[in-house]
Amino acid sequence: METGKLEANLAVLNEEFRLPFVADLIVRKTTGVERQILDSGELVFFESQFTAWEQKLRDAGERTSLPAEASARPALNELLVRLRLGLMDSSSNEGLGLGSKFRKKRT
User: Fold this and answer.
1) Nearest 5 degrees, angle CA 62-CA 64-CA 66?
2) Same domain, 56 and 19
3) CB contact at 8 A, 1 and 60
4) pLDDT tens digits, the chain, 107 residues: what are they?
5) C-alpha to C-alpha distance for 107 and 102, rounded to whole angstroms
6) Which domain holds residue 53?
């Protein structure tokens, strides 16, 4: 919300926020057993972290200059319809990074 960019990769986000426990959690998730159980001390710690970061998100949401609603919905819908119908040629895909994957159908 602070930058106006959407980043879902926790490793990338943590380059900015530098939370020491995030790298360990990522390793545990990617190399450990699915649904690992936290011990009681970890659970208390992560619950407190969750509560603190949830509040930070609320505060950032109140300060953000981003619009409350997405304004590109009609354009996005049109793009998706055109992609699904195969109505885009390779030149209109260049800015989307799609290359020639979607070509205009020739009749």
Assistant:
1) 125
2) yes
3) yes
4) 777 788 999 999 999 999 999 999 998 888 888 778 889 999 999 999 999 999 999 998 888 888 888 788 899 999 999 899 887 665 555 555 555 555 555 55
5) 15
6) 10-63
Please calculate the CA angle 22-27-30 and round it to the nearest 5 degrees. Answer: 120
d(CA 81, CA 31): 39
Contacts of 97 (CB under 8 A, 6+ apart): none
If asked whether residues 83 and 49 sit together in one domain, one would say no
Q: Residue 1 burial by CB count (10 A; 0-12/13-18/19+): exposed, middle or buried?
A: middle
Q: How many domains does the chain have?
A: 2
Residue 33 domain flag: yes
Query: 52: which 2 tokens?
Result: 């603190």
